[in-house]
């Protein structure tokens, strides 16, 4: 992997992780479009670790408040949110544990990725339309709502679903605003990305940590922070339509190339 490819993949990871377009789909599709060799899940996890740092840096005040209240005042609103987020991570953790082999092989078919991109884009489109008609929004995430959003997060084991897309879709359907849905989506990503990274770190050898590896890592981290900042501001006055249309177009292109080849 060249330095340019590494940086490109790092930026691609940051865009796909936080925008509802599926980072795992784009990383898996890179060799399909470029004709190169898949960079491997180890490098994918390293890029996820970089974006984990980005989301922690952006929401550090929220995280600090959640952790402190969760440990010292577990019955307070923010204290309960801390433990609820932990519980809501369980579905995705179980999906990752039991479906890891399928995630590395079966789910990475370009045709399946195209279908997931288009199908879950439709769900996001419909959820956004439903949400825009609501006259008021919920302000507190109870355990039941977070568990449902956590189940949606588990679907992201399939490339093309999009972890952020699935969780935001669920939040919109449950009556939360776009901003609230995006915020809880990012907070829910922290424990699941951290867990996946810790499990895979043992597979990374020092020989793999070269200049391209580090360049991709820092590109993902810096770009990730910028993407979060952009999205949180963008959705204040815009719908998710642009991401829906992008997913539909990408899905059509993948299917066309798949059968032409």
Largest sheet: none
Oligomer class: single chain
The N- and C-terminal alpha carbons lie at a distance of: 24 Å
Structural class: mainly alpha
Bulk shape? globular
Low-pLDDT parts are none
Percentage beta strand: under 5%
| Radius of gyration from CA coordinates | 18 Å
Number of strands: 0
Give the ordered list of helices and strands: HHHHHHHHHHHHH
The helix tally amounts to 13
Average of the residue pLDDT scores: 89
Helix coverage percent of residues?
A: over 70%
Descriptors:
261 residues; mainly alpha
Layout of secondary structure:
Elements: H1 3-18, H2 23-34, H3 41-58, H4 60-72, H5 77-88, H6 90-98, H7 100-104, H8 110-132, H9 143-154, H10 163-173, H11 178-201, H12 211-234, H13 241-260
Summarize the structure.
By secondary structure, this protein is an all-alpha fold.
Verbal overview:
By secondary structure, the protein is an all-alpha fold. The protein has helices at 3-18, 23-34, 41-58, 60-72, 77-88, 90-98, 100-104, 110-132, 143-154, 163-173, 178-201, 211-234, 241-260. It has 13 helices and no strands. Helix 4 (60-72) packs across helix 5 (77-88), helix 6 (90-98) runs parallel beside helix 9 (143-154) and helix 10 (163-173) packs antiparallel against helix 11 (178-201). The longest helix has 24 residues, at 178-201. The two termini are 24 Å apart. The model has no long low-confidence stretch (mean pLDDT 89).
């Amino acid at each position: 992997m060249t330095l340019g490819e590494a940086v490109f993949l790092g930026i691609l990871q940051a865009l796909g992780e936080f925008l509802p377009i599926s980072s795992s789909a784009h990383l898996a599709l890179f060799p399909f479009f470029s004709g190169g060799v898949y960079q491997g899940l180890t490098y994918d996890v390293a890029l996820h670790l970089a974006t984990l740092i980005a989301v922690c840096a952006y929401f550090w005040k929220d995280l600090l408040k959640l952790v402190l209240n969760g440990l010292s005042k577990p019955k307070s609103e923010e204290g309960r949110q801390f433990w609820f987020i932990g519980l809501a991570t369980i579905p995705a953790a179980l999906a990752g544990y039991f479906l890891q082999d399928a995630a590395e092989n079966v789910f990475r078919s370009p045709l399946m990725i195209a279908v997931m991109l288009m199908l879950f884009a439709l769900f996001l489109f419909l959820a956004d339309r439903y949400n825009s008609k609501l006259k008021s929004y919920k302000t507190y995430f109870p355990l039941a709502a977070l568990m449902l959003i956590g189940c949606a997060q588990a679907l992201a084991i399939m490339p093309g679903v999009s972890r952020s897309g699935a969780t935001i879709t669920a939040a919109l359907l449950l009556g939360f605003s776009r901003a609230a849905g995006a915020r809880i989506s990012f907070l829910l990503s922290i424990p699941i990305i951290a867990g996946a990274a810790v499990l895979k770190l043992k597979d990374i050898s020092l020989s793999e940590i070269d200049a391209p590896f580090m360049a991709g890592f820092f590109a993902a981290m810096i770009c990730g922070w910028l993407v979060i900042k952009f999205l949180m501001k963008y959705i204040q006055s815009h719908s998710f339509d642009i991401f829906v249309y992008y997913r539909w177009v990408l899905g059509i292109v993948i299917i066309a190339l798949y059968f032409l080849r």
